[in-house]
Amino acid sequence: MTETIGLWVAALFTIGIYSFLYKENPLYRLSEHLVVGISTGFGIAVTYAQVLKPKLIEPILSGEPNAWLLFVPAILGILYITRFFPSVGWLSRYPMAFLMGAGMGIGFPLQMKAQVLRQLEASLIPLYETGMSWDIALGNVVMVLGTLAALIYFFFSKPHKGPFFGTGSKIGIWVIMVGFGATFGFTVMGRISLLIGRIQFLLGDWLHIIK
Amino acid sequence: MNIWEKMLNVDRRWIFLLIGIACIVPFFIPLGLPILPSAEVIGIYDHIEGLGPDNAIFVGFDFDPGTAAENMPMGVAVLRHAFARNIPVFVTAYTPLGQGMAAMAVEELTNESSADYFEYVNWEDWAAIREQGITDRAGIEEAWTAEGNSLPENARGWIFEGRDIALLGYLPYFHLVILGMSSSIASQFPTDIGGTPLEEMPMYQEHKSLREIDLAVTNAGSSACVAWITYGREKIGLPVAFGVTAVMATDYYIYIQSGQTVGQMGGLRGAAEYEVLLHDNGYSKEYGKAFVGMDVQNIAHLLIIFLVVIGNIAFFAGGFNKKTKLKGRR
Amino acid sequence: MKRSIPLAIVMVGGILFIIQYFIPHQHSQTLFDYYTEWAPIVGAFALVLGVGSLSRLHSHKIKRKAKNWQYSYAVLIPLFLVPFFALIMPESLGGGMLETMGGARTTQGVFDFTYMNIQVPIQATMFSLLAFYIASAAFRAFRAKSALATVLLLAAIIVMLGQVPIGELLGKWFPKVGLWILRYPNLGAKRAIALGVGFGMLATQLKIIFGVERNWLGGAGE
User: Do B186 and B311 fall within a single domain?
Assistant: First the structure.
């Protein structure tokens, strides 16, 4: 029974939101507000159950060894709330500083490796090896030179003139356009997929007229 | 106002109606065209195919309901593959809502009404077997069936909670959680979402940190997936696979070519490819939602291309490229 | 106290953990483990900020009877009711999973119900509205006005046809060329962008660690 009611409620909201395509209306406005309330409420519930209860409250209450150390993150966390009181609001900078400084220190070498060094390394490849088909070899040339050219295009400290910077940036913008074209093609696929998902719900789960 | 101008000024709600029809009608007239899996998806499939009960993987439900239509079939497909091969799976989420998504995926795979479902055995239900000290996968199943339990006809297999799956869920600052799990998974997740201590689970006893994990598949609707590379792959060499929405997929080919991911499922197409691999290799009798969805996608893509072409024809034939402005309501 | 100490914490923490990466000694590893264990606890409290400002905003709206004030109840009621139900039915936190998994849990809690039948459909449907807008934009906005725009459109069309099975029926080469575009020119462009972003991110991090960039301090007290 609850399942059936649930399906009807879900279908009502789905159709209600699609009615927005015709005209803005109260049901859409209601949905817009509900989604904010529920997702934040869900966030509170999950955060309490997954973090505060098992990692802070329970260890302290059960008197685990070294549990007193947990007062450090607890106090830091509580300092966030000072944001609501202008006179002591500056105290909220402490938890932020704790999370940010160390977080960046930890992230710095790893991000340098993942986002920069590995990417540079992956661009330094042999363009052709024996047995390689022509399309892969051509692809390698396009990829390696394309990366370089697109980087030149984004390099604004030098005027885009002359054989290196001028030609390079021109090739760069062509490569970037192909990349954006691919993204656009995929974006269409993504958006349509989301619509298909909802139609599968309406026609399948709700009305049972498709499998 | 000439015909071209009229055409370009058509009320956009007509276009909305067209795309709606293009996405509904094909459900009733399926084309059933084959989908060929790409190397990017085969990479993930082969990696999981090489694993078994002695290995373990992470599956991240790193998306919200907004992109579930794309990400959910990926998550379900990977979980199905792992369950069928009895590979222990730790399930995590990057956002609170993702935790609900993960639970829904497991529900889909364990629901008796769905084809090829898995019979879920609660943690408490096989306590007697654990007390006998049996922890290996084959031994557990043997003892379980010896107790008089038989697999229902339409079920694929058993899932023993704590041996085959641990639903860990969400934690904030998940990138740091990934780092923390490189030392110990239980330091980050002392219990699963049902409150069962990780320390007691046989799958945790055999795989205590991310260093002992053979793959992390992140199904993401945001750049959350990159955290698995930065903090998992680059810190401890954890193999990572992506299941990402189509909108993001083109950005992440760089990680496939650099070898930072073992493969990638991009959008609904990627999920459909994985479903084809599962179906063709006997892991499921039916294709999943993504495969059916791709059939509908055919017509929708043709319609969009038609709209681009016809829009351009009207634009140039009407000479609007020379005029400064196109009059009328847009 | 108000600025220097937070800035010092950032600098010390940042430098310490950069060094930690290069010297993973047992002591530094312990420090690292404490940090990763504590960070989610500290971070969890940040949610209070979000909840606080959200409830303040909407209760003000109701008090002032601002435009569409009635809808503010649709934010406030679930904001507090959802965690309340989760607290009295903690097992339902797993979405709809636990009800079907044997045992005594056969009813669906209010919490599950809200998540599965309100939150999921609303969010999924709202995102799916974009399908209609992209179709409309395809007709109205994507013009081959220049050579570069034409290249963008052609790449998009080839990739679009390459991704759907019908593309192969129209031309055997569509999927092949589509994949080639994705794997080579697209990759080149995206790698250049990723490198740009990567360098930018590293520079910003260094600026924050060394206190050059201080916007994060916000305005609360000098």
Answer: no
Whether C201 is in a domain gets the answer yes
In this prediction, residues B210-230 reach a mean pLDDT of 97
Domain co-membership, B248 together with B320? no
CA–CA distance, B98 with B176 (Å, rounded to integer): 17
Residue in B16, B66, B176 closest to C40 by CB: B176
Dihedral, C159, C165, C170, C171 alpha carbons, nearest 10: 60
- How many whole angstroms separate alpha carbon C115 and alpha carbon C117? 6
User: Got the DSSP string for C138-161?
Assistant: HHHT----SHHHHHHHHHHHHHHH
C22 touches chain A (CB under 8 A): yes
Residues of the domain holding B10: 1-30+292-330
Q: Where are the domains of chain A?
A: 133-211
- Tell me what ipTM this predicted complex has: 0.94
- pLDDT tens column, B55-66: 999 999 999 999
Q: How far apart are CA A22 and CA A25, in angstroms?
A: 9
Q: What percent of chain A has pLDDT over 70?
A: 100
CB contact under 8 A, C18 and A108: yes
How many domains is chain C partitioned into structurally? Answer: 1
Quick check: is C164 in a domain?
yes
C-chain residues near B100 (CB < 8 A): 94-95, 115-116, 119-120
| Same domain as B266, residue B162 | yes
**A54, A121, A193: residue with CB nearest B69:** A193
Asked if B179 lies within 8 A of A118 by C-beta distance, the reply is no
Q: Please give the Cα distance from B278 to B77 (Å, whole number).
A: 8
Cβ distance of B173 and C40 shorter than 8 Å: yes
The predicted model scores a pTM of 0.94
pLDDT mean across residues, chain B = 94
Is B8 within 8 Å of chain C by CB? yes
3-state secondary structure of B121: strand
Examine the pLDDT at C27 and tell me if it is beyond 70. Answer: yes
Q: Does residue A59 surpass a pLDDT of 70?
A: yes
For residue C13, is it within any domain? Answer: no
